[in-house]
Amino acid sequence: MTSPSHADHPGASLGLPADGPGSIAQLGRRILGLVIDYAAATIIATAFFGYDQFALPEEAGLTLFAPMMVFAVLHIVFIPMLGGSPGHRIAGLRLVRADGAWTGIWRPIVRTILLVVVIPAVVWDADRRGLHDRVAGTVLVRR
């Protein structure tokens, strides 16, 4: 077993720096971005679809899933346009392809669908990329 070297940092296999701009996003920034996005989605969904705190799940209908749908739309629209969702941008992150290029249109769609499922987002590799990022060929980095 070899001792870890400076090249053994998360993102090294992708050619990313250990820290600073372009390095793999840290967990705290990821969570901050996620909280901001979900809070914004909840506010938007409540404004447009309403909220009934006393409704049973079978009576809630669309309002039950509205925040998650708005969350998905925010990601699918803003990632190709701005390189990240509003939460990513506020947290100082951006989403790029693993080779550093623009994400395109289909990658954010695939990534967001898997992110909404949740499990792929919590299964990480050595580079701290969730399964949703590996499948989409993307990486979340610091701006």
Overall 3D shape: elongated
Query: Describe the biggest sheet?
Result: 2 strands, antiparallel
> Low-confidence spans: pLDDT under 50, at least 5 residues?
1-6
> What is the strand arrangement across the widest sheet?
1-2
How many separate domains make up the residues?
A: 1
Give the mean pLDDT: 90
Helix-strand topology string: HHHHEHHHE
The helix/strand class is mainly alpha
- Work out the radius of gyration: 17 Å
Cα(first) to Cα(last) distance is: 34 Å
The counted number of beta strands is 2
Helix content: 40-55%
Q: What proportion of the residues form beta strands (DSSP E)?
A: 5-15%
Helix count equals 7
How would you describe this protein?
This protein has about 140 residues and is mainly α. It has one domain. Helix content is about 50%, strand content about 5%. The chain has seven helices and two strands; from the N terminus they run ααααβαααβ. The chain has a two-stranded antiparallel sheet. Helix 1 (about 25-50) crosses helix 3 (about 60-80) and helix 3 packs antiparallel against helix 5. The protein starts with about 25 loop residues before the first helix and ends with a strand. It comes from Microbacterium oryzae. It is found in: Cell membrane. This is RDD family protein. Keywords: Cell membrane, Membrane, Transmembrane, Transmembrane helix. It is a multi-pass membrane protein.
